[in-house]
Amino acid sequence: MGHWLARARDGQREEVMQRFDPRFWTVNFPRPMMAAVTTTRPDALRVDCVFYKRDDLAGLIWEAEDRHDHPLLRYETARDFRQCRLRFRWRSAGIRALDAVQGPVLTIEGRDAGGAARSWYVRLWNYASGSPQDATVAINFASVEGGFLLPDEAVPVWAGDVDRMFVSLAPPGYDGADAALAAPAEGWVALTDIACEGPGAVLALGAAVVPEHGLRLASGYDDSYHLTPARLLRNALHLGYRGPIVHYVGMSHYFRLEAASGGFYVSARGGVLNVACAAWHRALADAALRLGYTVIWSLSYELFDAHCWGDWKQRALDGSPALTGWSPPSTLLSPAHAGAMDWLAQVAAAFMRLAAAAGMPARFQVGEPWWWVQPDGHAPCLYDAAAVAAFAPAPIASIRDITTAAQRATLDRAGACLAASTVALAAAARGAAGGRCITHLLTYLPTVLDPLAPEAKRANMPVGWAWPAFDVLQLEDYDWAATGDAVSSAQGVAAAAERLGYPVGAQHYLAGFVLRARDRGQWRAIARAAATARARGVAETFVWALPQVMRDGFVHFDLEEDAMQAFDDVGFPLALGRDVEVTPHFSTQIVTAAGGAEQRIAGWAEALSQYDVGPGLRSEADIAALLAFFRARLGPARGFRLRDPFDWQGRGEAIGTGDGVNRRFALVRRYDAAERRITRPVADSVRVAVAGRTAGFRLNDGGWVVLDAAPAAGAAVTASFDFDVPVRFAQDRLSVSRATYLAGVAASVPLVELREVAP
């Protein structure tokens, strides 16, 4: 497996697109309203909205700079619109009409001809022909004017340096007041026959195609609700992802709301999914099916806190609600609350019916169900009224301080309650799918297997999940994976398998994710974790998640299988004679100026060695062994180990400095300021010390040592070891001859060192 973090196109394939292509519009809006934009034809889009307040206002946005697509797939930045003429048919219902006061306005944001920041407001009705709800709109950006009434209130627009433009969409009851509408209002706008003409009508569009590979993709609605499903799937397809997509429906955008007590709370009135969410997910299912994808619909117990009924929330012993670290926070539904679980079952059923309507096979995931543990103080949230009534929990102040049998019994009962709720949720999904549904359970290992809370698994990895309660067990551990903590990851996977009993063929692994763009370097560790899972033999490995893949430019590619297997971990079979030749070499470009001064550019940070192990008289047995070894390696096709007679030991080599977290260090051999990566150490020769004291460790493939405990910050980590050099035969032919009785000569047996990419 390989990966690359692309920042921009550099010669990769491009195609062209029409400016204002429906796939690349976005929406934005304030809470609690909801809107979604979907493509309905190559030249058409639709916006679905649900409004709850009298000041709700949605924007349908076109951006001059593509900030959302993968760097290899973005459209070119083009801020000058003066050579463009835009035309479309407008149809709407439940939206303030084109001719109304505070009706649809095209806001153009950018800079004027003098470079000063400026916004212009173009009333669409001034450029429409037809009725207020069914009209053709035509705008020439070279001569367009803002203002409500033309020509009396005309304000010339300079569209030569535009950042973005957006169409405002408001409900009929809009008056700008911070108050609820009398009832939720649904509306829609359809733009069809979208056309852009003129010299500026065409943009370059990235169209790189990554070869299909074996890594799968996860995504989430809360991070991509503002984009069209067609745009998301275009990224997935071009980046080589195929097969199933894990789609987390989120915790903050999918539900209907009702007004109560000065707030808005999730509701089942008229259905559990709001109209915008339903339209977006129908478009996702239809487009995914056309492209050959299947969707695993992921639903969790997490819910946006401001919209969750108070008695539905998990609570700690002191009555405080479970609140996550997001801002604003989300909360966790209590598995013991019948009303909350019934509502969640209705949500699961709604998504399964949506998938069935698209003709897609039903696959459902219960995502990260757990009893929340508060980060400060580690108090478990087992004490909401429904939980108290269901299993009478004993007092537990901290999940990390379980000392009594009553507390352990409480955790067991909480686990049984959680398991029963997840099984019931999966059954609801299966029932809505007509009994044919593959069920998945996703568990987050760093929390449920917290080493400082060994009893937590009683509640948060209950034995009621044991195989075959679900068809597939999905494991996620991004706190470990993203930081390269391969040891904790391996231990967590083993503990989950032992406790729940799912065979590796019934397991999936989710690798990721990178929360902040500044941490994009974590993709290296994530790619390594994904490779480890695939090598372990899990049925599918997913990268979490598409929005971060697009943001950070992550590109994954599979190496050819024969390249992955092109090394035989065996040593050269013959002892090297005294005439062996060793030739280390670098790649240095030397440029000599007219006056004789040189500029030297080192192309390699490490030397590569060449060897000739042939010189010297050999026995016929040696020659036969050499020929057999050459044939077994397929000549130069497969690598092997060679002991360099002049350089085969490292003693007290500095391999790193502790930071209190990292346990994984690479073996290196140092030559003053230069260093050589050691990928083929002799296993039983390796010794590691931390601050001069012998340390326990495990040796992993590629010359990595993983310490039993993270070294303290500033502690020097050193290693001593013997090592071999990875080499291959340099040529496709090997010439030998008989020199005398029972003796032969191999005049030259050239070998070349391999530059291994250590995992």
UniProtKB/TrEMBL annotation:
<dbReference type="InterPro" id="IPR057122">
    <property type="entry name" value="TIM-barrel_NCTSP"/>
</dbReference>
<feature type="domain" description="DUF2460">
    <location>
        <begin position="568"/>
        <end position="755"/>
    </location>
</feature>
<feature type="domain" description="Non-contractile tail sheath N-terminal">
    <location>
        <begin position="17"/>
        <end position="206"/>
    </location>
</feature>
<dbReference type="Pfam" id="PF23845">
    <property type="entry name" value="TIM-barrel_NCTSP"/>
</dbReference>
<dbReference type="InterPro" id="IPR011740">
    <property type="entry name" value="DUF2460"/>
</dbReference>
<dbReference type="InterPro" id="IPR057102">
    <property type="entry name" value="NCTSP_N"/>
</dbReference>
<dbReference type="Pfam" id="PF23844">
    <property type="entry name" value="NCTSP_N"/>
</dbReference>
<dbReference type="Pfam" id="PF09343">
    <property type="entry name" value="DUF2460"/>
</dbReference>
<feature type="domain" description="Non-contractile tail sheath TIM barrel">
    <location>
        <begin position="211"/>
        <end position="554"/>
    </location>
</feature>
<protein>
    <submittedName>
        <fullName>Uncharacterized protein (TIGR02217 family)</fullName>
    </submittedName>
</protein>
